[in-house]
UniProtKB/TrEMBL annotation, chains A, B:
One of its GO terms (molecular function) is zinc ion binding. This is 7-cyano-7-deazaguanine synthase. Its EC number is 6.3.4.20. Binds 1 zinc ion per subunit. Zn(2+) binds at C189, C199, C202, C205. It comes from Formivibrio citricus. ATP binds at L8, S9, G10, G11, L12, D13, S14, A15, T16, C17, L18. It holds the Pfam family QueC. GO terms for biological process: tRNA queuosine(34) biosynthetic process. Catalyzes the ATP-dependent conversion of 7-carboxy-7-deazaguanine (CDG) to 7-cyano-7-deazaguanine (preQ(0)).
């Protein structure tokens, strides 16, 4: 079985991405990050998801993004916006260089494992305000990853899989439901409480909620 | 004054790189990493260098590369080789995806600072065994960095400076001496002791020693 490293936040997208990697027959190595999130509910969700999908290993890496500030998700002085997504600006919930850092750690682990496949649940359709969710960013990371590593010099080239990148939230949900994902186990809210209950009004909650509506799937989210 | 983030290990190359950034008139923001090195002597050297060069800030970021193992520099079960550099293999002192991870953190800090210049003292001449020291890796990282960040979308493109990349160790030393670098403050040894004294036989010591010889500069290294 080929090994794959899957970036798993505990949210709806990464849970679907994990199910897709599993359906493709990969041996699953899940990686999550504790980067000073406002809450740990999503890390607990990630652990439950990894276990339920039969992952061989689930690593939680401590990273110190909060030291840089600059995002509503890691800097407590910046409020999480609840007024809806604006079309043509990068949201304040953007974490500087986050996906670059997360993929770099995945790359390091993949290299140690001898894996040449990394899965990340980025999406450029519903939420294109983050520069590091765009397909051109992922392509450039893949080019860089092949040059950065022992594998790129000596072995199989690294492949960054983004199975959700061109799907709408509704399509992601339909895909996940078909693969048996229990979305009640996932946490997407930017300001979930200690029990993982969602606020229902942040950008992430709004997108998730309308995704279930558009897919015609009952919303299993635990709202507070 | 334009701000620059400088990756500073405390070794000979990064000290020279810092002096070059200073000579170009940048405001200096130094970043070092505690990644489970065998000793802390080089981090102490980095702190002294940052101070002596007038850096505005010096951040030490804790990262958990040791958790991945796979290198003689972070995994205590792998011995540091002392038999000289082999020509056509990647050395066991290679740390998986290290420069990718370090540059990603520099990118995050640069973005928060509003800086669009990052300096890294990689070198592809004397020690080309590391895949992530090659110019093609750096170029690909720069392409990726421009796509990864807010700046790449809205502002000045990120520039990754590698002023040492095509210099021999002797040329690096000549350049640094001309800029007033005190190499007695730097620590290059892969297995320095608590006082920062060098072993004299690891690959890094060998390259450094022969660099001073070739440059005709007295070697100020503290050997044990």
């Amino acid at each position: 079985m080929k090994k794959a490293v899957i970036l798993l936040s505990g949210g709806l997208d990464s849970a679907t991405c994990l199910a897709i990697a599993k359906s493709k027959g990969f041996e699953l190595y899940c990686m999550s990050f504790d980067y000073g999130q406002r809450h740990n509910a999503e890390l607990e969700a990630a652990a439950r998801l990894a276990k339920s999908m039969g992952a061989v290993e689930h690593r939680i890496v401590n990273i110190d993004l909060a030291a840089f500030g600059g995002s509503a998700l890691t800097d407590k002085r910046i409020a999480v916006p609840t007024g809806g997504v604006k079309d043509d600006a990068i949201p304040v919930t953007y974490v500087p260089a986050r996906n670059t850092i997360l993929l770099s750690y995945a790359l390091a682990w993949a290299e140690v494992l001898g894996a040449s496949d990394i899965f990340i649940g980025v999406n450029s359709v519903d939420y294109s305000g983050y520069p590091d969710c765009r397909p051109e960013f992922i392509s450039s990371f893949q080019v860089m990853a092949r040059l950065a590593t022992r594998a790129g010099v000596e072995g199989a080239p690294m492949h960054i899989h983004t199975p959700l990148i061109f799907l709408t939230k509704a399509q992601i949900i339909e895909r996940g439901v078909a693969l048996g994902v229990d979305y009640g186990m996932t946490v997407s809210c930017y300001q979930a409480d200690d029990q993982g209950r969602a606020c229902g009004v942040c950008d992430s909650c709004r997108l998730r909620k309308s995704g279930f509506e558009a897919a015609g799937v009952p919303d299993p989210t635990h709202y507070r």
